[in-house]
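Q: Second attempt. The first request was missing the SMILES, so the protein and zinc ion are both included now.
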Amino acid sequence: MSPKPLTLQFTELNNRKYMEEIIYPILGACQCGAVSYELLTPPLKVVACHCKECQKLSTSAFSITAMVDKNSVRFHGKMNEWRRVADNGNVVAAKFCPSCSNRIYHFNPNEEGPLKLKPSNLNNTEMLEPSVHIWVSEKQNWYTLPKNAVVYQKQP
Ligand SMILES: [Zn+2]
Ligand SMILES: [Zn+2]
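A: Got both inputs this time. The predicted holo structure:
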């Protein structure tokens, strides 16, 4: 049996989102659709980062990262890679779509650990309310942190 085309799966999942439970997998795709992915299980943690780099990346006040196990996500389509060295010396490797440049995920090539999914391009983003806010030392003054959030001035 051949797999269903992705477009059909998208329609099915859009209809499902009105149900109470969040149903996995959830599909995500870059802005042009050349790269897509399936998130198979809930994120381990959702973090908002207010650092200047994330403001540049998101063209907004902060970026959202969903920490996910490597085996919890299946990617489709070719991605390009870009790397920079963070303040703490860690290498931040970034995967992105070669045609629309939408960021897909970050990882540290020198460390085993969860992938840092840039998850705003998921079809369903209900589960993406960040529980942790980092680098609030660089936060925009007009953004008020939620009362129950765990907050770090810099990288925890
Ligand atoms: Zn794209
Ligand atoms: Zn950041």
